[in-house]
């Protein structure tokens, strides 16, 4: 379970999160929508401790993320994150990209790590790309590789930060299909996205962020069908 | 036409001595590179450290190494330190001077290479549970190496060519020094230095070919 309590976050004098309260249960798929600069991506990087917070607390499975005593390297093993820019490691093949962390962080043998990597890569449809360097692949393939890379650590939670935003429209579908598959398998997921149709289909709940505040949160039918917040109404009218 | 008769035979007879000199030249170049790389890594870390003292030392080093003649640097190692009672042999002076020069240039190359790797690469590594050191070692360093590899090859070539400056501090066992001594002995000036130049050229070609092979083997992406 991810518990977010009154989380505040500023970059300099700019407050990007103004007291967020949110709980994500095991097996839940939460999508976060909202305009640029609404703080939704920042929240994800706070959840796995990549960004420090200025107030409140985030607790993942009983462990407070930003407590001094928390071993972030250990905590991050259970929170996978995939970024908008795929961040493939260009000097490693697809297989090596996925086996690196299991080998170096979890101390797996090469054979063991490769077995898991091959399974995850096949799962996302890249079983035939093992020896290829990421730069030779399309954005959609690189993004699916990044998903497999995160999954190879067997995380309990997956965070997706606008993972289709940098993709050619033709390639968005294959990545969203991968996310749908994970959702249907019961993975706990928080997806920051601009894909409204996707949010409507896969989410258990949808949260709308506006100017650092979570303005509304509800099951998709309710949030899209009968939005209460005036900003959300505007947002949906603009994106329909 | 100039009343000069070429006498190659005399020179070829001395070829083994010159090749021995070439070995010493190679030895100095390799040593100065190995130590230079270690120092350059330290200088790069100094500059990243945030400490004003350390980054000041590193910046001064890089500035002097890159903006003054290599000959000056070798002179300082020999005669400059000599003024303070620290007397280095010609061999050590030459090695110190070239190493100083290498470290300065390489540190600058490493800094550039480091800058060329986006912060998001480290972030991606950290998000997979890697420690800062693990992310640096497995993600940043291999990519840095590729960027810095060609400049490193160039520096190695420079190191070989810079050994010729050793003659000014009394070095006489390297290729240039041996040639100089043979010249004093035989006065076959043109022939001797022409042969020395060919040997220098061949050494450099070998280094460049080896570097190309290593790069081809190492950097497949």
Detailed description of the structure:
The complex is a heterodimer of chains A (240) and B (221). Chain A is built from 9 helices and 10 strands. With 240 residues, chain A is an alpha/beta fold. Chain A has 2 domains: 2-78 and 157-239, Rossmann fold; 87-154, ABC transporter ATPase like fold (Up-down Bundle), CATH 1.20.1580.10. The radius of gyration of chain A is 18 Å and the shape is globular. The model of chain A has no long low-confidence stretch (mean pLDDT 93). Chain B has helices at 8-13, 15-48, 52-67, 70-83, 90-116, 119-127, 132-162, 175-186, 189-218. Chain B contains 9 helices and no strands. The termini of chain B are far apart. Chain B has a single domain, classed as MetI-like (MetI-like fold, Orthogonal Bundle), CATH 1.10.3720.10. With 221 residues, chain B is mostly helical. The chains are: A alpha/beta (240), B mainly alpha (221). Chains A and B meet through helix 2, helix 3 and helix 5 of A and helix 6 and helix 7 of B.
Structural key phrases:
heterodimer, A: 240 residues, alpha/beta, Rossmann fold, ABC transporter ATPase like fold, 2 domains, 6-stranded mixed β-sheet, 4-stranded antiparallel β-sheet, 38% helix, B: 221 residues, mainly alpha, MetI-like fold, 81% helix, globular
How does the SSE layout of this entry go?
The complex is a heterodimer of chains A (240) and B (221).
Chain A: E1 2-11, E2 14-24, E3 29-34, H1 40-47, E4 55-60, E5 63-64, H2 72-76, E6 79-82, H3 94-104, H4 110-123, H5 139-151, E7 157-161, H6 169-184, E8 188-192, H7 196-202, E9 205-210, E10 213-218, H8 220-225, H9 230-239
Parallel strand pairs in A: 3-8, 3-9, 6-7, 7-8
Antiparallel strand pairs in A: 1-2, 1-4, 4-5, 9-10
Helix pairs in contact in A: 3-4, 3-5, 4-5, 5-6
Chain B: H1 8-13, H2 15-48, H3 52-67, H4 70-83, H5 90-116, H6 119-127, H7 132-162, H8 175-186, H9 189-218
Transmembrane segments (chain B): 24-46, 156-173, 193-215
Keywords (chain B): Amino-acid transport, Cell membrane, Membrane, Transmembrane, Transmembrane helix, Transport
Organism (chain B): Paracoccus salipaludis
